[in-house]
Amino acid sequence: MSGTGAQVEDDDGEGVFVAEEAGTYRVSARLGENSVLSAVVRVESRAVDAELIQVGRGPISDHHSGDVWVFEGVNGRDYAYIGTFMHDWMKVWDVTDPSNPMLTDSIQLDARRINDVKIHPNSRLGIVTREGASSRRNGMVLLDLAMPAHPTVLGEYTETLTGGVHNVWIDGENELVYAVHNGTRAIHIIDISNPEAPSEVGRWAIDNQQRSLHDIIIQEGYAYVSYWDDGVVILDVGAGSHGGTPRAPVLVSQFKYPIGNTHVAWRHGQYLFVGDEIFPPAWDADRPIDARGYIHVLDMSDIENPVEVAKYEVPEAGAHNVWAEGDRLYVGYYQAGLRGLDISGELRGDLYKQGREIAVIETTDEDTMTPNWGMTWGAQIFKGRVYSSDLNSGLWITELKERSRIIS
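Above: the chain sequence. Below: its structure as tokens.
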């Protein structure tokens, strides 16, 4: 192959041409010992370009923010609930008018960290995680959302989750919550069919006493479990392919990579987007954090044998949470802001160098916990807009605006 900015990757013994820069390339292939074929390939710049436009802000400058979840309440209005990092509040924002978010309530709980907030698909029940409770009984809190602007505590479940819960996923169809427990480092399956009296009905963990569990999402009957240095674990929780059920998961496959720190995974089409999170030693949330980590792209065509085929790595920055919809992947990339990526077509090689990044917005301003240092937590797509939380500055509402670009 002649020309720079491209490479030929091995794919089960077959060479695959991947270009990172526009230009003209001559690609040669050897067939047998003496036969050589070649072709000239013209690679053009991607004709996709856009910008993330700020629509609204919900500033939080008196404490650090955590996960955000956006939903339409039973009253027809839209809300964003945001947890807090190293604090005991959950913030309630009315975002029906996304250009003018209104703080309607703050729910105080016994916790030092409210990392995750999830809403039941019926919009009548919320689940909030707790860590660092003074009672040392953490678990999760169930919220009654009959009045979503002012949710009330319906109950809690702590019995088998005293060590703290970092993340949850709600299976609304089966009335189950999958809780990531810090103590056992296992997935605890909680029946919430009677939300006033939840009960544990199942549990699953990898066989490794040194395991560290971080996150879970469930899509189309498969659970994608981020197990830190043990990589991403895929479970059948009702897909039917390996005999798993929602209450009795069955292992399908596991993908590990040397760097470890597997923090999040998101399935979209044939690909699984897996992010690792790397913080420096002795980091401090009240000071600028120089995070690292990037997005690994796995081809899931054979779910029993995931294969890493691409990556998205922004230099000198760290990936956090992701969300994909249509041909777009949104990444909360900590100090590198909220970033939108074109994921159309086949994904191969270095997506950053290929110019698939289409839009960036920095989520920072002066009136924050750490002035002028954004730490974009993640993103959620809701009614065509991108809702993000920032560790230091609260809620950001943006919109992706496509713009035409002349093909070079």
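Residues 332 and 378 are 4 Å apart (CA to CA).
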